[in-house]
């Protein structure tokens, strides 16, 4: 009974649910994380580049300057290679030193100039791009800040990643794609023109080599890596979601026995991601090897063509080395194409935000629910553990004898010599002041808190001797700090029982008082609840958690403040509904601060400072002096004030008489 439970409590999801409709398979998720790939998506992506580059207009002169400097760097490199080759080959013939002076000075000047140009190009390029990116980031921030609330299906981390990494993709588009591509194009054209003066046939060979290196190979690299790259980004997103669910939802996964399946699922996703990344790496190596072959073949073709055209030996050498430098510079386009493939998803997301008509489109979280193999969700498919999906068919006896719990040696015990007999089908409520030990008692019953002394038995055997993975199916329910997964209502419910059909879901949800709300939602059972249930009210999260606990139907159902966060009338209705709907074979341990509606339980225990200070039926305790009666009177008085303040929408159920 932690006070904050009301806001956060909910039960969790994964179970062996059928692949939910909301889950999109990677193949159906485009790079922008939107379902549906193919041609329209491509058109949309190109539109994304246009949208993003429109923002570059104010910085065009600076960017053009950076592009020219990049081209100058490449040209200086090409000229350096050609001049140095001419110098070496000419010097081999021992000519007069005067004839070499210009070449010697040129080599030095080009070597120094290339370094200077490279430095200036980096300076100018980053200056222009950082200015532009600052502008883009400010716009993205303003757009996110102006939103009335989170878009359905979007996580808080998603907004952060749009602001940081997606905007960096804009920077990479300019610096690592457009500038190198422009420089390679200029160098290629100059090299072909220069070669044409020496030998037109050699120039044609060079042109062919440059087209293969600068057009065919980048196109092949894009085609080969695009499908894989499109699957990598959503998978990374899904894996990040798994990591959050596995850490923040660890207690709930364990409580419903879904942790091993969730771990398996995350492991399968990680393995799939590794496989795709290996495939990308292999494709990259293959394309690089093809590039090297193209360089060699082009040089050979140029040399043969030049020799065939009776070009002098020194010039043939210069042409060969110049060809080498030009084709290698053009191969930068392969890297640029690969980079572009990887950037498209992020560019699409930035464009979605910055274009009003795109912004209105629902943007599901980046493939958070995409899975490598089965389309199941991170939260919604716990794999099929037969034991988990089978409801316990009968009740079990549970017993605590002289149980004492001490969290720290020397500290006062959180439970002190507690005796509790809970035969199958018995329903008890545990009440008491804050810090009395109520949650600790539930901890002992669910096997998460081990007593210092005393014994806890379930079905006649030591409770702590039971299989830790099976125990949650025997004793479990709604515990404090429950976690709601970023998944649909159905997926969150199916964590409770994987094989529940819609009628069973509806019965549990009706008992928790959430059925009407679900029916009113356009997506019904497939309504996304947001990260940790952020798209639900506190009361709705609590009802969802309760419904999931009821669905789990363990032999001993423990409920820690099931009606916390609900208004008094709703709390009464929910408690009455759940007591009425409970299978009579199952036991119930209900921890609550609210004393109304407890007439439906067999016994109420009052805990204080770890000891059971009162026990009896609700009516008996209300008639005896003590903590229970004082608290009952206080709550009744407060409730009368509450009801006097506003019209009660629902009549109180199940607690109007003496307690
Ligand atoms: N993990 C822990 N480590 C140390 N002390 C703990 C821990 N959990 C509980 N306690 C202490 O044990 C005592 C009983 O706590 P417990 O949470 O069981 O009370 P509670 O009746 O559920 O309280 P509340 O109604 O406020 O939730 C308290 O004094 C608390 O400070």
UniProtKB/TrEMBL annotation:
Its main location: membrane. It comes from the Bacteria. It is a multi-pass membrane protein. Coiled coil: none annotated. Keywords: ATP-binding, Membrane, Nucleotide-binding, Transmembrane, Transmembrane helix. Residues 8-32 have a biased composition (Low complexity). InterPro entries: AAA+_ATPase (IPR003593), ABC1_TM_dom (IPR011527), ABC1_TM_sf (IPR036640), ABC_CydC/D (IPR014223), ABC_transporter-like_ATP-bd (IPR003439), ABC_transporter-like_CS (IPR017871), P-loop_NTPase (IPR027417), Type_1_exporter (IPR039421). Pfam families: ABC_tran. Residues 64-345 form the ABC transmembrane type-1 domain. The keyword Transmembrane applies. One of its GO terms (cellular component) is plasma membrane. GO terms for molecular function: ABC-type transporter activity; ATP binding; ATP hydrolysis activity; ATPase-coupled lipid transmembrane transporter activity. Gene3D superfamilies: ABC transporter type 1, transmembrane domain, P-loop containing nucleotide triphosphate hydrolases. Residues 398-634 form the ABC transporter domain. It is found in: Cell membrane. Residues 1-43, 357-389 are annotated as: Disordered. The chain crosses the membrane at residues 63-88, 100-117, 173-191, 197-221, 285-308, 314-334. The keyword ATP-binding applies. GO terms for biological process: cell redox homeostasis; glutathione transmembrane transport. This is Uncharacterized protein. It comes from Polymorphospora rubra.
